[in-house]
Amino acid sequence: MREKISTKRILVLGVFVLFGSFWFSIQVSAENSYGGRIGIQLSDHSCTSQFGDIKYTPWTFYGGGWSGWASDSNNKDPDCARLKLEPEYFSPGKDFRLCIQVANYNSYYAGGFECTPWASEGGGEANWWSYKGFHPDLARLKIETRDLPDNKYIKDYRVGIQGSEAGGTGFKECWYSSHQGSVQYTPWASEGGGWSEWASDHDRKNPDCWKVYLEAQVGTTPPVSPKHVTIFGRVTDNNGNPIKGVNLDLCGAGSATTDSNGYWEKRDVSSGSVFCVRISSGIPSGSTVKAINNTSCHSDASTYEYQIAGENKFIGCGYNDERSWDRASDSGYDFVVIIPIAERENCSWNQVDYGHGISNGLGCTGYWINNYDKDMNYICPGNKVIAGVCSHHNSGKEDRKFNFYCCQINNATRINGSWNQVDYGHGISNGLGCTGYWINGYDDEFTYICPGNKVIAGVCSHHNSGKEDRKFNFYCVDLENAEKTNCSWTGWVNDYDKDMNYICPGNKVIAGVHSKHNNHKEDRKFDFYCCNITPSVQEIWISGRVKNNNGSPMSGVTIQIERWHGGHQEFRYVNTDSSGKWRQKVYKGNRFAVRISSGIPSGSTVKAINNTSCHSDASTYEYQIAGENKFIGCGYNDERSWDRASDSGYDFVVIVPITDTTPPSVSISGDCPVGGGKFKFEASASDPSGIEKIELWVNGEKKKVCDFRFQTRYSPKKNEATNIRFNDYYFFSYLKDKLRRFSEVILKRII
Hints:
Blueprint lengths: L8 E6 L18 E11 L11 E2 L8 E2 L13 E11 L3 E10 L10 E2 L7 E3 L3 E2 L7 E10 L5 E12 L19 E2 L8 E2 L13 E11 L8 E10 L9 E3 L5 E3 L5 E8 L3 E8 L6 E4 L12 E5 L26 E4 L5 E6 L26 E4 L5 E10 L4 E11 L4 E6 L26 E4 L5 E10 L4 E11 L2 E11 L7 E4 L5 E10 L4 E13 L3 E10 L9 E8 L2 E8 L5 E7 L3 E8 L6 E4 L12 E5 L26 E4 L10 E6 L7 E7 L5 E8 L2 E7 L4 E3 L14 H14 L6 E2 L1
Parallel strand pairs: 1-45, 15-22, 35-42
Antiparallel strand pairs: 1-48, 2-3, 2-5, 4-10, 5-13, 6-7, 6-10, 8-14, 9-14, 11-12, 11-14, 15-18, 16-17, 16-19, 19-21, 20-22, 23-26, 24-29, 25-26, 25-32, 27-30, 28-33, 29-30, 31-34, 33-34, 35-38, 36-37, 36-39, 39-41, 40-42, 43-44, 44-47, 45-46
């Protein structure tokens, strides 16, 4: 076994308590290499407003990659850009370079991209890049990585950005210095990184071209192998999309949580220490997990067990124990989460004739729900929700007719339906029967997403002929035992004055709407937020407790729960708390088992004390059914005889062998502080391993129970030591003898 587990013992002594302890750290002298990630932000109005979201590249430690597309807040012709450097420092490092790509918002046309020279070469500047020689709406960054050349590391670096104007000549005039703005650099990585100043072209208005810079200081002394390592990985769904907010249990290495790109890391893991990697929470219920980079011996496992930090070698599958688990890397602890997707069914465009004509001409076979310049209040029939929108624009009326594509989702029932109840200051919509508040004002751009796991099942709208625009409200519903996942915006699905026929891809439905009005065209463009629906499996809590054979609770014992749903097996792990208690969720109506995995002294035996009478001597709880809570009987020679009549009380007793019954020898020392009557006592044992607590007894009375790792101070009472002169050297010696004479010294081990 790689993991040593000490027997816990209690040292009980008369006259004293506690052993001192201290923390220490080792400072490793090593030339680690810099890396990090880079963020980009765009703005408008000469860098003073319409600030867009920051978009970050992945970390160099994970191999880099593209950031998201950045723009200003209205996604059109930004004036300025700035970069943010967030450094990291690790060994062995990676070589890297910075790239930029630009695009137009409507088409997302991007083409190629331009990169700086590599950091190991000192960096440098990329070439200018533009969107067809005309000011782009979007920009994104990419970090490319490779192994560092031998005997090189990145001592320090910073990045910069610069804008220029093309002047309508392709983009060759971007090279004219008179068209260029200043290069704006971030602070150096050694200074903690941070933001650059805003960069633009010479007049700070709609730059046509952008260029990035990398300045690096390169060292030639190879890094020293660290005393600590960083472990990391990524979590994605079965479509390759990153999953944010997944919580991972790393056993002895602590825990971690994935970021917006699905990445996680844990730094300063002691080299040679044992750890695991397990998903503990943060994924849709009903999902199954696969640890995709496990060793070949455990290719179907849902966790990474028995990993050794810094060892980086795979021993082989010839061992039927933990030696077959350790991977040949401290990176790539990746997971794929297989999320079940509910299917759309029984879909159709509106088939009720409201007297406003048929919509067949646009391919949406059915009837228009509203007429031009008229109000609309429509909710999909039955338990259906909206998965598509069809619309025809009339330039004479400056208005639209609508039809909606409604679908059932795996026979799910709609619940908790309501119109928007948030007052955005645009008035109430009650007059049309859609009780609530309008989401937008006339001529306003708006973005609305149904709260929680709700999706759109209805649309209410009022038209104003003077404004030639519509206000909207949306009817949002939950689908029973379901949640929305893998959501994304479509981008504009129509242009002004143009027809629209759009259905969300795959089995997605609409959960949000983004719309922008054009006063010249007197029309709106639409962008939809489409989501998959994942059936949620109801989970219930199971619980239990672990004690030793003396009835004392055992903390830090790892409980393995094997749980099933939909024919899929997965494992969850939880540690007992200071009271020996634990709890974990399992899937209602599905099978599970409860076992002790680790954390008990070597050589111990385990008894699952609340098993059914058929399995009273078993050490595990097998074939339990969550939520069933009934014991069928012992007349079956299979799993039916296991299930207990409760989802709690999965308790264990750990019988710990007594390997040494010899009382430890104890020495007592102390000192007398000048000017006071409190004395500090320390104890040491000839065999201190496994001693957890010690007790101070005086005259047969227990005074204190303390942790063996610390010291204690005690003020003697008058009847314990009388007629003693304080501030006297002989005081301590006399007191110690006095206390020993009046006290009963008891030495024993308690398991």
